[in-house]
Amino acid sequence: MKEYKQELKRPLILIFIVLLGYWAVNNTDVIVGFLSNVFNILRPFILGGCFAFVLNIPMTFFENKLINIPKKRKSKKDDSTQRTKTKGKRMLAILLAIVVIVLILALLIDMVIPELGKVISMLIDNIPYYIEEVTKFAETNIDSIDIANIMDELNLDMNAIKDQLLNYLSNIVVSSVSLVGSIINGIVTFFIAVIFAIYLLVDKEKLQMQITKCLYAYLSSKKADKLVHIGKVSKDTFKNFLTVQCLEAIILGTLCALGMLLLKIPYAVTIGILVSVTALIPIVGAFIGCIVGAVLIVVIDPIKAVTFIVFFIILQQLEGNLIYPHVVGNKVGLPGIWVLVAITIGGDIGGIIGMLLGVPIATIIYILLRENVNRRLEAKEK
User: Fold this and answer.
1) Is the dihedral of CA 56, 351, 316, 287 positive or negative?
2) How many Cα atoms sit within 13 Å of 113 on the Cβ side?
3) Average pLDDT of 26-51?
4) What confidence category does residue 167 fall into, taking pLDDT thresholds of 50, 70 and 90?
């Protein structure tokens, strides 16, 4: 009877999967909408997990400097006291990590925003000059322009234009209200994510132990071992990638600042720091710093701005195709050629996010595949 039930179970599962697949193909909008709603609900927690992963690196550094756990514990009371002290020191380490990141961002804002303000102020001060030049041009050429003929050819309907302007204004009001709501929602999401990240970091060992227990409770030991191993490889890979991404950004910013100093281009240090921060986004991120830097320079010296853009494009090509694959590949354990392939494919699939995640995901696949191949070869040799 058991064998009959077992034989009947497999075709039923297969039929259910086929029917589910058929329904999914014909109801993609429902599935996409459902997944979108789920993502919106989980967004603060996903973002908090990302924050926790980033904060974990500086937090671990400060924690190792602050916490000294004794090897021998005398009693349960001493153990409880030690846990309380450890948690307190961890909170201090988290606070220090947040302060360091905030100070770095504040330094960047303090260096870049005032300069952008000066550029905008300079443009505003030059508005009378621009108006004067336009007026001179109009006075010189106004006699050769037949305005009445142009108006007749355009055949403008002033009532239609008025209605269209009113429509645009109403759309602007609606968009402004929607924008305010989005900003408030974004601020709330950000604070929930930060609080969730702190909770994750405080109890990360306990959460890891609970997840491991669940895996071994509901899965076979072999499958649980595989998932635990995949989790460890993923954690180490993303940690190494994040570390080397910061190192690579510092290298690019330093090279940019040194090159600007040699070429006597203004704002060398400011733009170098800005490029270092924006270069945390692989390949394309540094161009954000390049655009802002060009805006700062063009007001002072347009020729220097062109020189800076040409220099930066050459530097970015060298860094993106030679330095980046070599440095990142050595650190995360992925050959340079596959780093370049991962970034290209990731960018085509997911844009900037795809570029950011392409290398660590490809590294995880590469490491797991390499282990599987070596294991199979060893089994064949035996």
Assistant:
1) negative
2) 6
3) 81
4) confident
Amino acid identity of residue 180, one-letter, is V
Distance, first Cα to last Cα, the chain: 41
How many domains is the chain built from? 1
Q: Within 10 Å of residue 102's Cβ, how many Cβ atoms?
A: 10
How far is the C-alpha of 183 from the C-alpha of 188, rounded, in Å? Answer: 9
Q: Does 95 reside within a domain?
A: yes
Give the separation between CA 181 and CA 164, rounded to whole angstroms: 26
d(CA 167, CA 356): 41
Domain assignment present for residue 367? The answer is: no
Q: Please report whether residue 33 resides in a domain.
A: yes
Q: Are 55 and 94 in contact (CB under 8 A)?
A: yes
Structure tokens at 147: 């305005």
pTM (global) more than 0.70: no
Q: Enumerate residues 6+ apart whose C-beta is below 8 A from 230.
A: 364, 368
pLDDT in tens, 79-106: 566 666 677 788 888 888 888 888 877 8
Q: For residue 89, which amino acid is it?
A: K
Name the more confident of 351 and 153: 351
Find the domain containing 182 and state its range. 9-68+84-125+165-202
Least confident range from 70-74, 252-256, 354-358: namely 70-74
pLDDT for 350: 65
Mean pLDDT in residue range 300-327:
82
- Residue 219 in any domain: the answer is no
Q: Is the four-CA dihedral 196, 280, 249, 359 of positive or negative sign?
A: positive
How many residues are there in the chain?
382
